Amino acid sequence: IDTDTTIVSCPFSLAIDVECLLHALTALFGKSTLVDLQSWLERQLICTYNCLHWMFPDSRCPGSLRHLPYLKSLPPPDALLTPLQFMPSQLKAFRRTNIYGATCDHQECWITEWNTCRTFIHAVNSDCAGGYTWDKYLRASTYLSTHAFPFTLLSRSPMLQATSSSYPFLLPGVDILNHFCGQPVSWCTSYSEGSTEARDDSATISIISHTTTPTNPESLSATWKGTSATGGSTKNFIGGAFVDSKKSQ
Question: pTM for the whole thing?
Fold first, then answer.
């Protein structure tokens, strides 16, 4: 890859963010559910939306669920190996460490979120409730915690730093790009001429590499996916979110 080459792009219209999620979920559950859905954490919205893709046969997936090809590009469930996927006997090996306590705390928090969502789904569409399992929610939460970017990227001056009003969201295709640690890149947004909207679905966001990349170099395993992991801390090892939800600081 030559210097200053655009290596990946994604249109804003494919971003999995709150605006996309509320539109899709109210299309499935009815416009009267909007107020309840707006009270959810962003993580609950994203994870529930992604879970719903796995609850229908591919040929019968509702049109409002638009990201099945993206979800199929992510690692399969048996390739997810954070402590939250450990068997109880495996997790016990980490007793008396901060990993054990943090994992239990994460699991309790996510199960509480899942139960809230499941109760809501059962009330509005009991036929869906049976397929909305903890295993699916855990899988979706793991994808989000290891692939999310701060919403500040979808601004006219994109930045990776989280702010008090930002929240995690997913950029299909961009977040599965294997990256080379420390390689200088630029995040650039492109808007159509004359556009003045803060959020323009016709806009795109791209990563431009500023170094020459020879064939086949990788500083990470070929099976590792995601651009948003930031190091080897306990939080990342567990699969903690790249940025915390603004509603759950």
Answer: 0.82
